[in-house]
Every structure is written in structure tokens, then in C-alpha cells.
Design goal:
The structure is a single chain. By secondary structure, the chain is α/β, with parallel strands linked by helices. The chain has a single domain (about 5-255), classed as 2-enoyl-CoA Hydratase, Chain A, domain 1, CATH 3.90.226. The chain contains twelve helices and eight strands. Helix 4 (about 85-100) packs parallel to helix 6 and helix 8 (about 175-185) crosses helix 9 (about 190-195). Keywords: ATP-binding, Fatty acid biosynthesis, Fatty acid metabolism, Lipid biosynthesis, Lipid metabolism, Nucleotide-binding, Transferase. One of its GO terms (cellular component) is acetyl-CoA carboxylase complex. It holds the Pfam family ACCA.
Length: about 260
């Protein structure tokens, strides 16, 4: 079988046929209860978060979602969270630590929303606070990149003890289109940009940026495998002393 190009893998990650974040949450935690608001300004629907159970394990789930059609994408800001969303994530991380609940983050975003209003309302600081909190939280933390993993908008939720990617996904400091425009002033070189960015799961696994490439789950019927996998991973992390958990997480990210 012919190996797909890096840019084809990018297109696969953006496919409208990809399983939605809400389907994943419902499949692994049917009793999920959504929480809203950042305690300061508003609720950003792009970032969905709340509490539930995976098996018998109480858990906090935080995710960035895209829509399945144009109407939903407008509602969810095409998967680009605003500062209110990242502050909601920060609130939920703090709450998870308070009640000793492990954290699962699910990521599908081209990046944080880059408009002037978001910058005015503290986009950069909200992302930075999520990264700091994620690196320092005293509970097990797993991050999964489901589709797009774009820039700091993805990194804000990708500081877990374990970081996994679905097979059809990518993770990059900038989109291939953005890279081509910045480096060559020529967006037509997007395929070359995708190759140079080393953004595919296989290359990121080889470099140690992620810990495992997961199956390309297509519908809710496939999710029992993911649920069982997460139960095992969280069980392993919960058995680890907190000091060791923190040390391993920090050492993991210091390598980069």
C-alpha cells in the first residue's frame, strides 16, 4: 500500500467524516455532566468540559470541539477557543485537583481564536495558565489529539502524563498553510510545508513527542476499545506516587 503524504494525513485529520468530540465523550462516559462558564465573563461553547465516569473511575473531561456542519461550526467557532474557553478549562483542572479526579483532554482545534477581541480579553495569558496548571496538577492527566492539534491552542490541553494521537490526526506549531505563507510567501507549497513540519503521528512518535498512535475510531461502536485502554492507562498512573508522577511529567516535557 502506498504511503500517504503528510498533507493527505492533514486532510484526513480535517475530514468531516471524523468522529465528533461529543460522540467520543458519550461513548466512553455515558453519564457525562457538562459544566459551563469561566467564573469571570462567559461560557465558550467551543470548549466542552465537565465530569463523568470511565468505568468506575470519576473523571474530569475537557475538550475542544468542531461542528459537523456549517451551522455547528459557526456555533463552535470552527474549533478555535476564545480566552473564556481556556479559563473554563483552567477552572475545571483546578476543580479536578481539588476533588482528586484524573483529567482527560480531547483536542481537535486549528488553534486558538486569533482576533483582536480575544487578545484584548487575555488569550495568551489564558493559554499560558492552562499550560502551567497542566504541568503542575497533582492528578493523573491524559491528552489525546483527535484531529487537528494546532499551535498553542492545542498545547494548552496537551501537557498530560501521556499524550496520544488518533491515526488520522496531526500536531504542529503552525498549520501547513501558515508555514508556507510565512516561510516562502507562497501558500501553494502547502504539501512541502506539511512534510517539513514533521506533524504526522508516526514522526511525532519516533521523536518522543507523543506516547502512542491510537486507532482511527470512526463511530461510537468502536469506542469500547478506547474506553478499556483509558481505564488501564489511568489505573497505571493512579498507582504512581504523586511525587513520581510530577517528576515524570516534568521530565517528559523538559526533553523538548
Amino acid at each position: 500500500m502506498k504511503k500517504e503524504s503528510a498533507y493527505q494525513e492533514v486532510k484526513n485529520a480535517r475530514s468531516k467524516e471524523k468522529i465528533s468530540i461529543k460522540e467520543i465523550i458519550q461513548g466512553i462516559s455515558p453519564n457525562f455532566f457538562e459544566l459551563h462558564g469561566d467564573k469571570i465573563e462567559a461560557d465558550d461553547k467551543t470548549l466542552i468540559g465537565g465530569i463523568g465516569k470511565i468505568g468506575d473511575l470519576p473523571i474530569t473531561i475537557i475538550a475542544i470541539q468542531k461542528g459537523n456542519d456549517l451551522e455547528q461550526n459557526i456555533e463552535y467557532n470552527f474549533g478555535s477557543a476564545r480566552p473564556q474557553g481556556y479559563r473554563k478549562a483552567l477552572r475545571l483542572m483546578e476543580q479536578a485537583e481539588k476533588f482528586n479526579r484524573p483529567i482527560l483532554t480531547l483536542i481537535n482545534t486549528p488553534g486558538a481564536w486569533p482576533d483582536v477581541e480575544s487578545e484584548y480579553h487575555g488569550q495568551g495569558s489564558a493559554i499560558a495558565e492552562c499550560i502551567v496548571q497542566g504541568l503542575g496538577v497533582h492528578v493523573p492527566y491524559i491528552s489525546i489529539i483527535v484531529g487537528e492539534g494546532g499551535s498553542g491552542g492545542a498545547l494548552a490541553l496537551a501537557c498530560g502524563d501521556r499524550v496520544f494521537m488518533f491515526k488520522n490526526s496531526f500536531y504542529s506549531v503552525v498549520s501547513p498553510e501558515g508555514y508556507a505563507s510565512i516561510i516562502w510567501k507562497d501558500s501553494s507549497k502547502v504539501s512541502q510545508a506539511a512534510e517539513e513540519l514533521n506533524l504526522t503521528p508516526g514522526k511525532l512518535l519516533k521523536d518522543g513527542i507523543i506516547d502512542k498512535v491510537l486507532s482511527n475510531y470512526k463511530n461510537s461502536d468502536d469506542l469500547k476499545e478506547l474506553k478499556d485502554f483509558l481505564i488501564k492507562e489511568f489505573s497505571d498512573l493512579k498507582e504512581m506516587p504523586v511525587d513520581k508522577l510530577m517528576e515524570n511529567r516534568r521530565n517528559r516535557f523538559r526533553k523538548f
